Amino acid sequence: MEGKWPEVDVEDGLDLLPFTENSLATFTKRVLEGLFLLEKQSLRLSVHFCGDAAMRDLHEKWLGDSSSTDVMSFPLEGGPVVAAQGELLVCIDHARAQAASYGNAFEHELALYLVHGALHLMGYDDHDPVELVRMKASEARVLKQLGLAVEGRH
Q: Omega before 75 cis (within 30°)?
């Protein structure tokens, strides 16, 4: 792929620890490259990390739901294709809270959100029971390949 991808943007004032903005960008790229390798597809993505307040606003604006959520995916070119382009919005605050709730590492929870969001852009649909099983299996396979583990979620 040409250019610097994924493009990573972070909302001002977020607590990223243990990451810096640079290490978060490197981590994001590593996770997405692992997914692309296993799925035999690639996506050129823009990834925006935000907090709960921003995610609530965006969730309300785009999906009519005023609650916060983990990740939202937006295709930028008409739908899932082999070289689809899209945007991921990932909620740092949600990841931190869910990681604590399930006893998982914050970084591993973030990886799950990146994989989950990108899989949506590859055509996976977690609202369909059969697709959900397939999606969760792909998430688990990618996380395992990366040496990451998210308990209580699959």
A: no
User: Can you list the alpha helix ranges (DSSP code H) found in 7-128?
Assistant: 21-39, 52-63, 92-102, 106-121
- For residue 62, the tally of other CB atoms under 10 A from its CB is 11
CATH topology of domain 7-145: Collagenase (Catalytic Domain) (3.40.390)
Q: Look at residue 3 and give its three-state secondary structure.
A: coil
> Can you give the pTM of this predicted structure?
0.85
pLDDT in tens, 39-87: 887 777 888 899 989 988 888 888 888 877 888 877 776 545 444 478 8
CA angle 150, 97, 14 (to 5 degrees): 110
The DSSP H or E segment spanning 133 is helix 129-145
Please report, for the chain, the start and end positions of each structural domain, with discontinuous segments joined by +: 7-145
